[in-house]
Amino acid sequence: MQRLAGKVAIVTGAGSGIGKSIAERLGCEGAKVVVDYIGDPKGAEDTQRAIEKAGGEGEIFQADVTSSADVRKLVEETWNHFGTADILVNNAGMEHKAAFWDTTEADYDKVLDVNLRGPYFLTQAFVQWLRAVNKPGRIINISSVHEDMAFPGFSTYCCSKGGLRMLMRDLAVELGPLGITVNNIAPGAIATPINTALLNDKEKLNALLKKIPLGRLGTPEDVAGMVVFLASDEAAYVTGSTFVIDGGLMRNYHEQ
Questions:
Q1: How far, rounded to the nearest angstrom, does the alpha carbon of residue 173 sit from its chain's CA centroid?
Q2: CA–CA separation, 230 vs 161, rounded Å?
Q3: Cα separation of 13 and 199, whole Å?
Q4: H-type helices in the chain, by residue range?
Q5: Does 196 score more than 80 pLDDT?
Q6: Model confidence at 200, in pLDDT bands (50, 70, 90)?
Q7: DSSP letter at 115?
Q8: What CATH topology corresponds to 8-247?
Q9: What sign does the CA torsion over 77, 79, 82, 87 have?
Q10: Where are the domains of the chain?
């Protein structure tokens, strides 16, 4: 039985990595999926084909989450195309490595715009449409273990994810009376293109694996499974929480 049959989901950053797996899995579970991307459309097209191969339906939209006009248009076009929207997955994100004392205003603005401002105003647009028709919904943010765990050299990333955690908690209270649930998923070390340098550095990779009790990196599929649960009726009474997917890393992490 498909748990999300008849539902419509919007997934940002769905052209690669975790977003791609989430979009594919939602499609496999019966949802119609809006595949949002920015830049090269090839990844989004690959995602759409994977959804269709699994028997689902996917539509590609290009929207920059840092643009208020783009996010409003993304939600509007979803409603115009499918007649509804039920699930929002704020997945698009980025990181920038720099010592705190070397971080520029431009670096700060870019990371916070993508990781925090983007989810804020896309969620706002999503909720405005739901309120207009008195419809419940599900909001799932792909956060990070670094919404709670320090990450020296990535202060902007930690700020953005910490802000996303508090936004989720606040909106769970504010939107609960509307029947809208809001939760975060906090992945740890996941094998995705963003971690290519780590995957190719055996010494650093092995050092990290020693800190993960389960002894392996996570996969995008590990994250996608939790998204499906939170989007399904099984999680109807779940809101205001962060679900950590890190193989135990947070419980065993140390810098040296």
A1: 20
A2: 19
A3: 21
A4: 17-28, 42-53, 68-82, 105-112, 118-132, 155-175, 196-199, 202-209, 220-231, 249-252
A5: no
A6: confident
A7: I
A8: Rossmann fold (3.40.50)
A9: positive
A10: 8-247
Contacts of residue 99, Cβ cutoff 8 Å, sequence gap at least 6: 153
138 and 86 Cβ atoms separated by less than 8 Å: yes
Measured CA to CA, the distance from residue 144 to residue 149 in angstroms comes to 9
- Alpha-carbon distances, residue 232 vs 1, 12, 179, 238 (angstroms): 12, 19, 14, 10
Put the strands of the sheet holding 32-37 in their side by side order: 57-62, 32-37, 8-11, 87-90, 137-142, 180-187, 242-245
- Mean pLDDT, residues 101-118 taken together: 98
Q: Which residues contact 49 (CB under 8 A, 6 or more apart)?
A: none
β-pairing, 32-37 with 8-11? parallel
CB 134 within 8 A of CB 127: no
Each residue's pLDDT tens digit, 124-166: 999 999 999 999 999 999 999 999 999 999 999 999 999 999 9
Whether residue 60 contacts residue 93, with contact meaning beta carbons closer than 8 Å, is answered with: no
Q: d(Cα 48, Cα 113) in Å, to the nearest integer?
A: 27
How far CA 121 is from CA of 15, 66, 131, 141, 172, in Å, comes to 21, 9, 15, 13, 16
Find out whether 224 and 18 touch, Cβ atoms under 8 Å: yes
Residues with a catalytic annotation lie at 157
DSSP code at position 101? G
